[in-house]
Each structure stands twice: as structure tokens, then as C-alpha cells.
Design a protein that fits this description.
The structure is a single chain. This protein is of the alpha+beta class and about 425 residues long. The protein has helices at about 5-15, 20-30, 35-40, 45-55, 70-85, 90-100, 120, 140-145, 170-185, 200, 235-245, 260-265, 275-280, 325-335, 380, 395-405, 420, and strands spanning about 1-5, 60, 65, 105, 135, 150, 190, 195-200, 265-270, 290-295, 310-320, 345-350, 355-365, 365-375, 390-395. The chain folds into two domains: about 1-105, no CATH class; about 170-420, BirA Bifunctional Protein, domain 2. About 35% of the residues lie in helices and about 20% in strands. The strands form five sheets. A seven-stranded mixed β-sheet has the order 7-10-11-15-14-13-12, sandwiched between helices. It has a two-stranded antiparallel ribbon with strand order 1-4. It is extended and about 110 Å long.
Amino acid sequence: MEIKLGQQGEKAAQEGLLEKRIWEWIQSQTSPGMKDLSNAFERHEAGPGVGLLKGLGVNIDGGKFVCENPENISNAIEERTTFIQTLQGTEEIIEHFKGRKGLIESVVVVNRNWSITKAGTAIEDSKLNEVVQIAEITPEILQGEAWKDAEFRPYDVALEASMPRSGRSHPMQALIERIRSIFLEMGFSEIVEDYVQTAGWNMDALFIPQDHPAREMQDTFYLDEPNQIPLNPQLMKQWKEIHEHGGKTESKGWGGKFDEEISQKGLLRTHTTVNTIQYLAENPIEPCRVFAIDRVFRKESIDRTHLPEFHQIEGIIMEPGANLGMLVTTLKTFYQKMGYPEVRVRPAYFPYTEPSLEVEVKWRGKWLELGGAGIFRPEVTEPLGIKDPVCAWGMGLERLAMLVLGLDDIRQLYISDLEWLRNQPIL
């Protein structure tokens, strides 16, 4: 096994390791802080760089960088720099760089030695004849006459052959198909809706107040075209009554003044609940069990756990007698079919369900929250003419994918790394 520099390692060998460059910058400043660092380095370098320095003993106090033993930090960085330049170092430092993507690569080297045996050396040169053997049959050979008198090299079927590269589904697509098959097996039907929606269906219909932070420009992708999408005036009137004073329910609503212009703003949907609520509006009487797996959009900064475009899994059960026990059993059944037998729920709060709960599964000895669920409030169902209880749930597909594939960075799901894709298990 040999170690060689990866693409990022070659860059680090030329420009310097990230922690070295940031550490030198810190030492050159009078009173360096995070704000200054953000101005001096790109965002994709500042965050990881600070993380690396924290591991070496640099701390942040009041927004300023502090450390107790700068000499130890300099020595550790120098040791890492020497390794990148020479690829010579301890097992500990090799393991450190193996954990940093793209800096070093392990290469398997096979050495073969050939020598003539005693039987070979005993043969006289005069008895040796040079013979040309054909190793590959071509159309030209077959079309001519040369093949009749030619000697063909024998094939050794025991030799190692290269592994054929066959096509396969992307892990995300494979996971979507797996989830789809589970819900279909459980008796659900799939629904699909458009990405472009109104604030009315995306938020007002779900009893999300019009001054809720999620509606702000920094959280939602509002559209210039179409800027406004007309809605049914009667529907907006019902939403207005619900939001302002609770309508015919026992709710007091949110108070304030409901703005119909806000309700008709065009946006990219922020969740897939907009799919199910519109389905219920079109089918308010007939019992149903439906689900959706689709893209949603939010103004998120890209990091290891967030993307501005991702997928959600959404589902509802509407039928007489639907209750919290049915909802919990459905979710436990789904996760057990996904391979997570230990599932629990905890009380939670969502504007459009009551009671509300969070769903957690046990993974690597810890409980991990994977989604929210609850029963739609009367403020949601009453304007649509729905009389039966509606159990609803939603969960993030990418988070589930990270769990299934053992990833700790959501961006890994969408990078063009063919080697990583080839090595993923078939889901």
C-alpha cells in the first residue's frame, strides 16, 4: 500500500494547508476575530479552517481567536506540512489525513518478479524458434488467409479480469423507489403537484400566520414571474375568517388583518404538505391514504446538513376514526420496513397539527429525529369541507438517505464522484 497526494493534497502542497494559511493570518493580526476571518477567507474555507484549528487548541472567546500554547499549534501544523511535502509521517498523522477528503489516496502496488527456471536455462539456443502468436482476432485476419497457418495464443481462463462496469441507479433514486414501494405495499397512492404554488396553499391553508418568520424573503423563494397567482375568492374568504377569528371552529385564530394579496404571491413550495392539502381540497369526502415524494425549496445556506433544494416525504390518512394511534402505528411500520425497528415519538408543536409529534429512530445507539407528524387542526380542514380526521406526517428524504448510507455530509449525495457511486450498496 502506497500513499500519494490527492487533488486537494497537490493544491495544499503548492499553496499550503488550510490550517497553516489561517494560522499564519491569525498570527499576523493584532486582535483577529471571526468577522475579520470572514473578510480574509472565502466562506467555504473559513468554517472548515476554524474547525481544524479548534482541534489543535485554538478557541473563540467573544468572537476573538485565543489559544494557550501557540508554539504547540505551530509545531503540529509544521508536522502536517512536512507530511504533505514528503508523504513521510507517523501512522497517527496518516490516519488524520485519510479523514480529510481529497488530500491523500491509498494506492495498492503489486510487484511481480520474473526469472528463468532451470528447465528454461537448459534449453539450447539453437532449439529455440521465434513464433508470432495471434492474441486478438480482428476482421482483417478473418478476411485474409493468414489465420490458416497462424499460431494463436492460448487463453488462460484462470487469469484475473477487469470488473465490468454496469449501469445502476443513483443511491437517492434507489432510495426513492424503495420508499415508494413500501408505501404502495401499505396501501397508499402517490400524488404529484407543481413546484410553483401560492402562499395561500403553501401557508395560509395550513394555518401558518401571515407574519410567521418562515414567510420572510430570506427563507422562501418568492417569484417575480408569476408574481401573483389568482385564487378562489371564496376560499380566501374562508382562510381570512379562520386566520382573523377562527371562523366556525372553536379557535380564536391569529388575530390581526389577513392580506389576500399576500395569499396570492407566487413562490416555490417550501414543503410537500401543499400537495396533500390540495388533494384533500379536491377530495374532501372520500377516505384516502396518499403520499408524495418530491422536491421542495428553501433559502438555506449550503453546508453539511442544509441545501436550498431537497426532497420531502409526505403522507396523509383521512378516514372515519383516524386517530393518533393509527398515525404512530403507520410511521413505526414504515420505519421498520426501512430497517429501523426501534422507533419512538415525542410531543412537538406545528402550526397546522394538534396533537403534534416528532418521530425518532434509534441509530448507532442514539435517538435521531427524522420527521414531524400530527392530526390536522380544524382550522385547516374546516375551510375545505373535510369532516373526517386527517393524520399527516412529513420527513426529509436526504436526512433519511444520510442515515441509510452512513454519511455525515448531505453534499456527498450530489457530488459527481463515480468511484463513490460505484461503491454504494444496492438499496
